[in-house]
């Protein structure tokens, strides 16, 4: 009788176990989302300087809004990009403007992060998992499934003495 209980327990435990996802036969991103919200973490290393932030990125056709927060969730900055250009708003500081997000990043960080290309990778509009953008070597080192799509989970970019890493923890696509 004890053998039956052991076998039953093993079957029940096996039925509750999470199966490993099938191997991905097409390591490409997409199809693209028109609108997407993503939350996660950013790590930026520039020389000896290291920054760790949380982010919420909202992309809609023709606009991007990126909220940057401390690791504990305190709002630090808001980057916006639309037909009127790019803007950076920070508490108690004047708004900084530029024509593009990379130009804005250059003014603020001293490095023109390829943020517009990252928005395309983020929503699955760039299918390739690696490439070069404006002198940055970009690699999607991990992906995740979201609503019958393959989206990036980890994006790593490197240029000269700057390393940038974006990790997506949560997705939402309200209009899909």
How would you describe this structure to a colleague?
With 176 residues, this protein is of the alpha+beta class. The protein has a single domain, classed as outer membrane lipoprotein receptor (LolB), chain A, CATH 2.50.20. The chain is built from three helices and ten strands; from the N terminus they run αββββββααββββ. The protein has helices at residues 2-16, 101-109, 115-122, and strands at 36-46, 49-60, 63-69, 75-82, 85-89, 96-98, 130-133, 136-146, 149-159, 162-172. A ten-stranded antiparallel sheet has the order 6-5-4-3-2-1-10-9-8-7, with helices on one face. The chain is globular, with a radius of gyration of 20 Å.
Layout of secondary structure:
Elements: H1 2-16, E1 36-46, E2 49-60, E3 63-69, E4 75-82, E5 85-89, E6 96-98, H2 101-109, H3 115-122, E7 130-133, E8 136-146, E9 149-159, E10 162-172
Antiparallel strand pairs: 1-2, 1-10, 2-3, 3-4, 4-5, 5-6, 7-8, 8-9, 9-10
Subunit structure: Monomer.
Family: Belongs to the LolB family.
Pfam family, one: LolB
């Amino acid at each position: 009788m004890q053998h039956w209980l052991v076998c039953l327990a093993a079957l029940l435990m096996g039925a509750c176990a999470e199966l490993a996802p099938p191997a991905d036969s097409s390591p490409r991103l997409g199809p693209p989302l028109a609108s997407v919200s993503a939350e996660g973490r950013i790590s930026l290393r520039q020389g000896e300087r290291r920054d760790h932030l949380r982010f919420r990125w909202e992309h809609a056709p023709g606009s991007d809004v990126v909220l940057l927060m401390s690791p504990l969730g305190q709002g630090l900055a808001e980057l916006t990009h639309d037909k009127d250009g790019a803007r950076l708003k920070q508490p108690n500081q004047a708004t900084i403007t530029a024509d593009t997000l990379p130009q804005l990043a250059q003014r603020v960080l001293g490095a023109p992060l390829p943020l517009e290309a990252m928005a395309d990778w983020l929503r699955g509009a760039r299918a390739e998992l690696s490439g070069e953008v404006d002198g940055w070597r970009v690699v999607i080192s991990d992906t995740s499934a979201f609503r019958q799509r393959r989206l990036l989970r980890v994006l790593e970019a490197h240029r000269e003495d700057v390393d940038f890493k974006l990790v997506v923890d949560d997705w939402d696509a309200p209009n899909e």
